[in-house]
């Protein structure tokens, strides 16, 4: 049977397609190697200057029939595809990545499971101020059905003249009260030397936003076998956040929870900008539980409930909120902590949404 002209041309085109595919695959392999090298050097994968130079060269050599804009567009697509596999290839190697572990990590605190089927509400004062203060909060939380209490004993503050926390004495108070009420506790540790000691007093060690990239602290947290609550840094990207978690998990401590606490933007209406999109992205990218600190992200009592509901609707495994018996007299964050009746209204509102089931 005679081949028609159209068939012949199409056969030629098929041959070119084959050659293009081979070359594209070869190009992608090289891009992957470049990506791995950049990873080793710690330089960003995206390089707009390099892309511009390549486009300039290609356009200079373009003899048509495609016009320059089309050539730019086609090659930009190739660069983007290469960048994507460079990033995916890297993500594949992270222990915290979903690509490494499909199943959710569940952190068990006694009967409470974080990252399991039911979201958790964590509440408590910004700072541990006294035995009486913590006891009052614990009694109210217990009566409200809350089982995990937060309370800061080491307080990294912007000003060195602000209350710095009660230190180890604060951890002792937390333990004594938690034991009395059967609560689990979370408290921030700022010094690697305190990590082991803290394990005797608290159930979850928090690494605060300002210390998210304190690598010695992350390593010390990775060396113990206690759940860690890692806060997102004030200006940390999601990628940096996940790498910080990787520091802990890579040393064998797999019980890590991530907490979005707002990032620094130009917006002044809230203390920080609650990056709600970080919740589904983190859930997608990582198997670790994801929580949202509504108090520190917003710094505003009037929008805590809608933000908590938004967090849960976005897939958060829990919400953290600050509660104080008398916020006006609090030694830290006086303006943003809820008093007991405000907490009850807030928690009822969130419960009524049905998002905590
Ligand atoms: O040349 C590089 O630095 C690469 O990473 C390769 C490459 C490309 O595919 O050409 C990919 C992504 C960068 O944005 C720039 C270029």
UniProtKB/TrEMBL annotation:
Family matches, as InterPro entries: Aldolase_TIM (IPR013785), Chorismate_II_sf (IPR036263), Chorismate_mutase_GmP-bac (IPR010954), Class-I_DAHP_synthase (IPR052899), CM_dom_sf (IPR036979), CM_II_prokaryot (IPR002701), DAHP1/KDSA (IPR006218), DAHP_syn_2 (IPR006268)
Pfam (any one): CM_2
Gene Ontology molecular functions: aldehyde-lyase activity; chorismate mutase activity; transferase activity
Domain of life: Bacteria
Keyword Transcription regulation: no
Keywords: Transferase
Domain Chorismate mutase: 1-90
Protein name: 3-deoxy-D-arabinoheptulosonate-7-phosphate synthase /chorismate mutase
Organism expressing this protein natively: Paenibacillus methanolicus
């Amino acid at each position: 049977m005679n081949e028609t002209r159209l068939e012949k041309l199409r056969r030629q085109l098929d041959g070119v397609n084959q050659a293009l595919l081979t070359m594209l695959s070869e190009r992608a392999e090289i891009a992957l190697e470049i990506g791995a090298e950049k990873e080793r050097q710690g330089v960003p994968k995206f390089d707009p200057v390099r892309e511009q130079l390549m486009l300039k060269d290609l356009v200079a050599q373009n003899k048509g029939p495609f016009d320059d804009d089309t050539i730019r567009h086609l090659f930009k697509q190739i660069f983007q595809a290469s960048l994507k596999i460079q990033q995916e290839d890297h993500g594949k190697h992270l222990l915290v990545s979903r690509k490494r572990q499909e199943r959710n990590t569940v952190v068990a605190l006694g009967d409470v499971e974080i990252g399991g089927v039911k979201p958790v509400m964590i509440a408590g004062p910004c700072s541990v101020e006294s035995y009486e203060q913590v006891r009052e909060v614990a009694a109210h939380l217990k009566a409200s059905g809350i089982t995990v209490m937060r309370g800061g004993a080491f307080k990294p503050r912007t000003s060195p003249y602000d209350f710095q926390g009660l230190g180890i004495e604060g951890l002792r108070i937390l333990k004594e009260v938690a034991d009395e009420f059967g609560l689990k506790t979370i408290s921030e540790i700022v010094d690697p030397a305190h990590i082991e000691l803290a394990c005797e007093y608290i159930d979850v060690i928090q690494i605060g936003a300002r210390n998210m990239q304190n690598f010695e602290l992350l390593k010390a947290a990775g060396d113990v076998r206690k759940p860690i609550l890692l806060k997102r840094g004030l200006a940390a990207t999601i990628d940096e956040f996940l790498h910080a978690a990787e520091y802990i998990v890579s040393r064998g401590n797999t019980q890590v929870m991530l907490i979005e606490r707002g990032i620094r933007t130009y917006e002044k209406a809230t203390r920080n900008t609650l990056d709600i999109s970080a919740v589904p992205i983190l859930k997608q990218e990582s198997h670790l539980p994801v929580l949202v600190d509504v108090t520190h992200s917003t710094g505003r009592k009037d929008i805590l409930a809608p933000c908590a509901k938004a967090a849960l609707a976005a897939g958060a495994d829990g919400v953290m909120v600050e509660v104080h018996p008398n916020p006006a007299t609090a030694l830290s964050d006086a303006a943003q902590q809820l008093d007991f009746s405000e907490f009850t209204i807030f928690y009822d509102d969130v419960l009524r949404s049905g998002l905590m089931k």
